[in-house]
Amino acid sequence: MSETVKAIQEGRHLKAALSIDEVAFEIGVCRDGIYTAIKESRLRAVKHGRRTLVLLTDLEEYLRRLPVLHLGPAPASEATS
Questions:
Q1: Is the full-model pTM beyond 0.85?
Q2: Is 19 helix (H, G, I), strand (E, B) or coil?
Q3: Are 42 and 48 in contact (CB under 8 A)?
Q4: Do residues 17 and 60 lie in contact, with contact meaning Cβ atoms separated by under 8 Å?
């Protein structure tokens, strides 16, 4: 969970919504990736004038719905002669 989300939950209100650039920075994804998630309806965004904003609650929900990474056991090394 990002520091911004934690701050809001703890009552240290910073922001209720983030710009696309802020979302991309917070989760380490490029802007195009954020816009793709919005276009595919995986991430909800709202408009305020010309600005596109993502509510922190929507960002948390998006992150919660991402697939979980399951790594299998490491392949055994083959002994070479």
A1: no
A2: strand
A3: no
A4: no
Other beta carbons less than 10 A from residue 28's beta carbon: 7
DSSP state of 3: H
Tokens of 52: 């596109």
Measured in residues, the chain has a length of 81
Domain ranges of the chain: 3-65
What are the residues facing 46 on neighbouring strands?
53
Least confident residue range of 29-33, 35-39, 74-78: 74-78
Residue 5 one-letter amino acid: V
Query: With respect to CATH, is domain 3-65 assigned 1.10.10?
Result: yes
b/e sequence 46-77, b meaning 16+ C-beta within 10 Å: eeeeeebbbebebbeebeeeeeeeeeeeeeee
**Residue written as tokens 């710009």?**
19
